[in-house]
Recover the amino acids of this structure.
């Protein structure tokens, strides 16, 4: 059986991406998506969506191939981390679709995780650089101590050598303590990261319902305020009482929706 057109297009984009990534490394091209778009006669934006879709977890990728989600959704979902995509998949499997409020909440959590991971990475790199410097200092001190210990230069008195040796030994001990402190901090940071990764990061159904309810409440309030402003600002130009009555009825319905949404919360 012939493969669906979307799946074929995805395959073409994937192969071209591999080719153009190599060319970009060699400095032959600058924009991979632009080259893909030119080759497949699609827009660069469309090419970007296809390349982002390649970041989907297997289950969402399969849904895309089978028209369970569209390319625009794949573009949005593919930008999120694996845990976020699993949360989205869970909702799609339960409800058949995902509301914007639910997606935005998952996206926010994903972005917070990304910021946290970036911060951790930066801290780890700083500690590693500092630790490397301490190691270099220790090596220099050890070499200096060896030189002093074997020094037979008669121009330096024994007292001077012993004083310098004592200074170097103290400096080395201090550097070793600092190194141990940095190593301990690094291990703590790694342990904290492991603990964070082990925690459950998906959103509970109750939390998603609460978020969705809040979003609906905000929407109802916005519609209420909008209709109220229309009536307040256009009383003088409304042509007849029928128009005004319709506006009031709409306002009343919006107010009812708003009260209901608050009750449901």
């Amino acid at each position: 059986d012939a493969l669906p057109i979307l799946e074929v297009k995805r395959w073409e984009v994937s192969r071209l991406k591999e080719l153009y990534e190599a060319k970009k490394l060699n400095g032959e091209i600058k924009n991979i998506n632009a080259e893909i778009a030119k080759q497949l006669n699609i827009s660069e934006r469309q090419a970007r969506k296809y390349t982002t879709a390649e970041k989907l977890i297997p289950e969402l990728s399969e849904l895309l191939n089978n028209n369970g989600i569209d390319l625009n959704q794949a573009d949005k979902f593919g930008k999120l981390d694996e845990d976020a995509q699993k949360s989205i998949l869970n909702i799609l499997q339960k409800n058949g679709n995902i509301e914007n409020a639910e997606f935005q909440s998952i996206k926010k959590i994903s972005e917070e995780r990304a910021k946290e991971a970036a911060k951790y990475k930066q801290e780890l790199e700083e500690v590693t650089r500092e630790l490397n410097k301490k190691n270099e200092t220790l090596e220099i001190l050890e070499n200096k101590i060896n030189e002093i210990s074997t020094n037979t230069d008669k121009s330096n008195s024994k007292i001077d050598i012993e004083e310098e040796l004592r200074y170097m030994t103290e400096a080395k001990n201090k550097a070793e303590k600092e190194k141990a402190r940095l190593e301990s901090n690094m291990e703590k940071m790694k342990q904290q990261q492991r603990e964070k990764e082990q925690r459950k990061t998906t959103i509970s159904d109750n939390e998603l319902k609460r978020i969705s309810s809040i979003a609906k409440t905000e929407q109802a309030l916005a519609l209420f305020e909008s209709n109220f402003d229309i009536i307040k600002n256009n009383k003088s130009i409304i042509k007849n009482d029928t128009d005004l009555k319709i506006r009031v009825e709409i306002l009343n319905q919006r107010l009812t929706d708003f009260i209901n949404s608050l009750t449901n919360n």
Notes: The CA atoms of residues 134 and 179 lie 6 Å apart. The chain is about 80% helix and 0% strand.
